Amino acid sequence: MNSPQSDELKDFLLSRQQHASTNEISWGERRREWINAVERLYQTVTDELLSESIAQGLVAVSRVEKEITEEYLGTYRVPELILDIGAETVRFSPKGRNTIGANGRVDLVGELDAMTLVLEPAGHWSVVLSRLPRQVVALDGKALTEALRRVMR
Predict the structure, then answer these.
(1) For residues 68 and 85, what is the distance between their CA atoms, to the nearest angstrom?
(2) For the chain, where are the alpha helices, taking DSSP H only?
(3) Mind listing the pLDDT tens digit for each residue in 37-86?
(4) Do β-strands 105-109 and 88-96 pair in parallel, antiparallel, or remain unpaired?
(5) Main-chain phi, psi angles of 112, to 5 degrees
(6) pLDDT of 150 higher than 60
(7) Burial (Cβ within 10 Å: 0-12, 13-18, ≥19) of residue 90
(8) Cβ distance 127 to 115 under 8 Å?
């Protein structure tokens, strides 16, 4: 004998199953979107934030390919952005798309330390100043300068 509650529960579970089948996640599309977001980050850094310094020869830019394996996204290749500043090297190193609280993570790695950049759900990049409490600032010239100060000798 079915009670009204069990019918209601069954209807709910059935609706969730139907909802899931109509909202299948395209992991290949997510992977492409993530790689494109990383490319946009690098364009912002090189074409906007550091363009004058690159033109003046204060910063040399190069790239190397990195392989990442993530659950659902599989194994894929994504570039790291390498900045040679004086005698030091700083690297923008993607960590992955599947990140708690963000749509992706790239670490800024220097010889002294590393900082985290996150792709916010709104689509812009932020620098994580503190994890607990969570404190982030939008990536701009000032935030990049502070991040470089922290990671370089």
Answers:
(1) 26
(2) 4-22, 27-43, 51-55, 141-151
(3) 999 999 999 999 999 999 999 999 999 999 999 988 899 999 999 999 99
(4) antiparallel
(5) -95, -40
(6) yes
(7) buried
(8) yes
